[in-house]
Amino acid sequence: MKKIRVIIKTGFFSVLFLCAVMSVGLSVQAEAKSSDTIQQGVYVEDIDVSGMTVSEATARVQEYVTSLQGEIITLNATDENQLSITAGDLGLTWKNTEVAQSAAEYGKSGNVIQRYKAKKDLEHENKVFSLVFDIDKNAISQMITDRCSQFNIGAKDATLKRENGAFRVEPGQTGYQIDVAASTDAIYQYLNTEWNHAACAIDLITKVAQPRGTEEELKQVKDVLGTFTTSFRTSGSSRSKNVTNGCHLIDGTTLYPGDTFSTYEEVSPFSEENGYYLAGSYLQGKVVDSLGGGICQVSTTLYNAVIRAELEVIERYNHSMIVSYVDPSSDAAISGTSKDFKFKNTTQYPIYIEGYANSDKDLTFTVYGVETRPATRKVDFESEVIEKIEPKGENIVADAGAPVGTLSVQSAHIGYVAKLWKIVSEDGQEVSRTEFNKSTYQLSPRTATVGIASADPSVTAAMQAAIATGSIDQVKALVGAYKASQTAPPASAPTQADIDSAAESAPLQNPVIPAVQ
Asked: How many alpha carbons lie under 13 Å from residue 408 in its C-beta half-sphere?
C-alpha cells in the first residue's frame, strides 16, 4: 500500500504541474490572441519595438535605416585628397525586411512550452533581432569611377629639352591611379564587417605608376638620325602663322621605344584658341579657306625627316592634288581623323623631335636619337613621275550668294601618278633601291567662282551669259567692265558688245588662290 500511495502521490503532482502549465499556456494564448502588438522587451538592433504593431515597427526600422544612409563616409585618396559621401551613396539598404514580423511573432508562435519559455526569457533578458544590411557593389564602383577619378595623377615621363644647341633632361613625376576594383572590395568589406554604423573614413587603394626615362638614358640622345627642310616663303601671313604654330606644337616631343606619334593628335584642335588662322587648303579638288590651312606642310616636312631616320611609318596619305613644296610622292597629308601621319619609334632608345621655323620661312624638323647604323650607310629618297595628266578646259562656278563683281580664280592642277624610291648606299655604292610608296594626285582644271547676285536682273543675265561661254577670260572681262561702270554708270547693263570689247583688252588681274597645302 505504501508503494501504491507513492505512485498516486507522484501522479497527483504531475497532474498539478500539467494543469499549471496548461493554465499558463492558456493565459499566454489568451494574451496573444488579445493583442497583435509586439511583446515587451523585444528590440530590432537598438530600436525598442515593444508594444508596436508590425507596420509601426517596420516604419521605425525604416527611419533608422534612413538615418544610417545619411552617415558620412570619408574616402581618403592620394596626397591628402578626400571625398565625403554618404552610406546611401553606396546603396546601403536592409535585406531582412520581414524582421518586424519576426519580432511580432516572438512568444506567440510554437507550442505551449516554447511560448512559455519565450515569455519567461523576456522577464530576464531582452530579445534583440539583428538587421541584415546590403551594400551595392555596382554603386560603389560607379561612384569611384565618376567622383574619384579627379584624384588620379598621371605619371610624367622624363623628357628632353633642347635649347641653344644643347640638351637638358627634365625629370619625370610618379603617378598614382585609384584601383577601382580593389577599392570597391575594400569599401564593401569594411562596411559589412567592421562598420559601427557611425561616420567613418576608408582608404582607397591606389596603384603607383613609375615614370619612364632616367637621366643616364636620356643623355645618350645626341645624334641626328634624320632631318629635312621645306620653304614657305610664298605663303601669306595666315598660312605662315599656321605653319609656325604647328611646328611649335610638335617641337620638343620625346618618344620612348615603342611609342607611336600621331601628327593629328599633336597639332589639333584646329581652332583660333589653339593658334590657327583661316588659310587655303584642299577640299574635294578645290582650294578653300579653313582654320589651319597649311598644316600639311608641317606633317610633310616631319614625314621626310622621319623616313630618313628610318623609323616605321604607321600611317601616311598623299594629298588629293599635287603640292609644290616637295617632290611628288614625298608628301604626307592630314585631314581630320580620316587622314593622319603616324610613325613609331622602332629604335631601342628614346628619340627627340626638334621643329624650327626661322624668319626666312624655312621649316625644319630634326629627329635626334642614338645612331646605331654604320657610319658608311647613307639613305636617300628619289621621286619618279610615272604618269602626268594635263587638265582640259576650264570650270566656271556661279555663286548666287555673292554679288556681281566678285571673282576668284584657282589655277589648274596637273594630275600625277608617282613613286618614291628608297635608295641605300654603303661606302658610296648603291646597295638597294626599293619602292617606298606610290601616290596618285587628281587633276583639276582652271576654275573660277563668280558672283551673280544683283538687284538688276539684266546685270545677272549678262554675267550668266558670260559664264555660258565657258571662258574665264570672258568672265573676267565682264567683271572688269562692270566694275568700271560703277564709277561712271552706263545707261544700261553691259551688252555683249561691251563684253567682247573688254575681252580684247588686257585681262583683269584678279588674285589667284594658290594651292597651299
From this structure: 12
CB-based burial, 266-305: b 16+ in 10 Å, e otherwise = bbbebeeeebbbebbbbeeebbeebbbbbbbbbbbbbbbb
DSSP state of 246: H
C-alpha 259/C-alpha 481 separation (Å) is: 61
Which single residue is written with the C-alpha cell 528590440? 43
pTM assigned to the model? 0.69
Q: Could you read off the pLDDT of 310-348 as tens digits, one per residue?
A: 999 999 999 999 999 999 999 999 988 889 999 999 999
CA distances from 119 to 18, 43, 49, 322 (A): 18, 14, 16, 100
Residue the block writes with cell 535605416: 65
pLDDT digits (tens, 9 = 90+) for 39-91: 999 999 889 999 999 999 999 999 999 999 999 999 999 878 999 999 999 99
CA distances from residue 193 to 43, 132, 139, 186 in whole angstroms, order as listed: 21, 12, 18, 11
Burial (CB < 10 A; 0-12, 13-18, 19+), residue 448, is buried
Q: Tell me the C-alpha distance between 262 and 377, whole Å.
A: 28
H/E segment holding residue 17: helix 2-34
